[in-house]
Structure formats: C-alpha cells, structure tokens
Amino acid sequence: MDSQYNVDSTEKTTTTTSSSGDVGLDKIYMKSIDSILKIAEMVLSLIIFICVTSHPGYFTIGGGWVQFVSISCLITVLILWIFFMLRIIYKLPGPWMLIILIYYVVYCVFFLISFLVCAIQAGNNPQPGGLIAGAVFCVIILVVLGADTFFQFRKWQDSGSSFATRSTTSSGGAATTTTTHTTYETRTQY
C-alpha cells in the first residue's frame, strides 16, 4: 500500500520592540526639528513680550493679554523642551502626546487673538510701533506654532495613544528590548 504524505508548514513571527530611555541628555533631540521649533517659539514669545511692553500704556490697550499669552507660552515651551531634552517626559504617566497636541492648538488660538489685539490697537494709537511689531511677530509665531502643531499631530498619530515608545532613538543610556515570538504550525495531509 503506497501512501503519499504532503506536509504544509506555516511560520508566524511576531517581533515586539520597546524602548525605555534613561533620564539624561538627549543629544539627538537637541538637533531635531522639534527642538529647533521649540527654541524659535521661546525666542518669538520673548520678542512679542518685549514689543508689547515697550509701548506706553500697554496695559490699557489689551497688552496684558498679549503679555500673558507670550510669557505663559515661553514658560511652558521651556518646560516641555527641558523635559524632552532630558528624556523626563517619557517617564511621566499620561497621554502626553495628546496633551501636547491640545496645548499647541490652544496656543495657536491664543496667538491669533493676540495678533488681533495688537493689529486693532495699532490702528487706534498715535504711537503704534511696538504694537505693529508685536502683530508681525504674532503672525510669525503662528506659523511656527502651526508647523509644530502639525508635527505633534503626526507624532500623536504614530504613538497610537501610547507614549511608551520613542519616535527618535538615541545613544547614551537608552535600553532597547526586542522580543521575538515564533509559532510553527505543521499540517499533514494523507
């Protein structure tokens, strides 16, 4: 009695990579677009603050709002920049990519309102120099914040509501664990 055996084999491999960087200086982040945009936001916020404060009677023309927006943006972006640069943000619990995305959307709206305040008040004042400069820098920071908001949105999409994995890899203390699970399935046909 002759019998013929056909063997079908299926192999399924699953690879899981997780990265948990230690707290420390991230030299790669310092040179990234994200870091450069945050530095530009801090500098522009300080310039807007100085422009509006230099106008005589700034507080009575809505300058207090523009000052609040520019200084609060400067402080929070500085904190975020330090957290990313030192990799502290990856150790904090919470949906940080979503929180940062919401922060940037809110500050885009705040700077749009600040632009309107500066532009409207510049038309109503005999000495509009500081307000015109403030309005121009508000438009510039809106462009920078818009670009950063776009990149934050892309990072939020890539993170998949999880912040456990990093979007950039760095050397110097970052531990990477790779787990490979292979399953074999063999089926014999008669």
UniProtKB/TrEMBL annotation:
Record has Membrane as a keyword: yes
GO cellular component terms, A-Z: membrane
Transmembrane segments: 39-59, 65-86, 98-123, 129-151
UniProt domain MARVEL: residue ranges: 29-157
InterPro entries: Marvel, MARVEL-CKLF_proteins
UniProt-annotated stretches for the region Disordered: 1-20, 161-190
Localization per record: Membrane
Keyword set, alphabetical order: Membrane, Transmembrane, Transmembrane helix
Membrane association type: Multi-pass membrane protein
Pfam families: MARVEL
Name of protein: MARVEL domain-containing protein
Protein source organism: Mytilus galloprovincialis
Taxonomic lineage from the root: Eukaryota, Metazoa, Spiralia, Lophotrochozoa, Mollusca
